[in-house]
Amino acid sequence: MNHIATYVLLVKGEVAGFYALGMSEVELRTKHRKEVSASHPRQGAVLILWLARAANTDVDAATILRHAVGIGQIGSRRVGAAVIAVDPFDAATENYWRQHLGFRASLTKQRDADGEQRSRLWMPLFPEG
User: Fold this and answer.
1) Quick check: 87 and 22 in contact, CB under 8 A?
2) Is the pLDDT confidence value at 2 over 90?
3) What confidence tens digit (pLDDT) does each residue in 52-101 have?
4) Which helix (H) or strand (E) holds 99?
5) Closest CA to 84 of 100, 66, 59, 57
6) Which is deepest, 4, 49, 85, 126, by most CB within 10 Å?
């Protein structure tokens, strides 16, 4: 991955969080492709490489994610990305991304910090409704 952009989320002039985005792809199941109006299983993805919040902030991960999705939506128009994706660090973070932030498993696999094969998680950049 040659092109990575890092963004800082400021609230009242203070750093509340940051994230880094790059470009990648995910392979989607047939039923999931319908959600993003895709005919091909492989779809361009804005990949969250890092997402963190400041220790002394009231801003939660969902707020930082919404900011990242907004930036991803702007960029997607130029690069053809249909989804935002993340590679979970481990089983606990996979569960968090899925349960609290609404991500789903793709067919794309990556090794996590423990060396386990784990699905790259995704959600539409432009959800319906």
Assistant:
1) no
2) no
3) 999 999 999 999 999 999 999 998 888 888 899 999 999 999 999 999 99
4) helix 91-101
5) 66
6) 85
CB 126 within 8 A of CB 37: no
Whether the model clears a pTM of 0.90, i.e. scores above it, the answer is no
Percentage of residues in the chain having pLDDT higher than 90: 73
Structure-token pair, residue 107: 């067919």
Q: Residues 34-64, buried b or exposed e (16+ Cβ, 10 A)? A: ebbebeebebbbbbbeebebbeeeebebebb
Nearest to 67 by CA among 5, 117, 111: 5
For residue 125, give the nearest of 10, 46, 51, 58 by alpha carbon.
46
